[in-house]
Structure formats: C-alpha cells, structure tokens
Write a structure and sequence with these properties.
This protein is of the alpha+beta class and 109 residues long. It has one domain. The protein has a two-stranded antiparallel sheet. The protein is elongated. The chain starts with 5 loop residues before the first strand and ends with a helix.
C-alpha cells in the first residue's frame, strides 16, 4: 500500500479565466468556455471521445494514489499552458475502529 497520496495545485493561464471584474460576477475567476491553448486543434480522437471540438481543462480535484498518475495529469496540464505543483501528503496511517452493524457481526461469526 502507498504511504502517501498526491494532489495537484494548478495555476491556469491568466487569459483562460474570466477577469475578477467580469460581469456577470458569478463568472469572475472561472474558466472561459471559448478559450483553448495556442495551436490546439481537436483531433478525431478528441471529437469521438468527447463529442465536441471545444477544449476543456482536465479535472484536477481528485486525490491521486500514485505519484506517477499525478505526474501524468500534471504533464498534460502543463502541455496546455498551466503551471502545476505536485503536493504530497504526510505519511498515511490507519487504525482499526469499531464498526457497529453487519461488519462486527460477521467478524465474530
């Protein structure tokens, strides 16, 4: 089992976000739907997979169980122009806790 989990801290290119003074205000700081990386063109695989020629940023809100998976996602984001920091957790520790219900009955059977 892995001793750590990983997470990405992403800084997107400034021009891909709505400015802080944008109206309507609820869009301020959010990603623009009309933005795409310089020179990026949707290929057949992209269109087939996502059903659109529109660019969108890959999801980054997840926790990665392996460093290699986090690095692959970071490299993809960097190819699109983001600046990414790889964050590692403190060492994970687990302890057994009592669980009322079905699991505790099975354990004693």
């Amino acid at each position: 089992m892995n001793e750590y989990v990983w997470k990405l801290q992403v800084e997107y290119p400034e021009d891909c976000l709505y400015p802080e003074d944008h109206e309507p205000g609820y869009l301020a700081g959010n990603q623009r739907s009309d933005w795409k990386p310089a020179g990026w063109v949707a290929d057949e695989e992209w269109i087939e997979r996502y059903g659109s020629e529109d660019f969108f940023w890959p999801k980054v809100e997840r926790i990665y169980r392996s460093r290699s998976a986090a690095v692959r996602r970071a490299q993809l984001l960097e190819r699109y122009g983001a600046v990414v920091k790889l964050l590692r957790s403190v060492p994970l520790t687990f302890e057994e806790k009592p669980f009322p219900g079905v699991l505790s009955r099975k354990a004693s059977a």
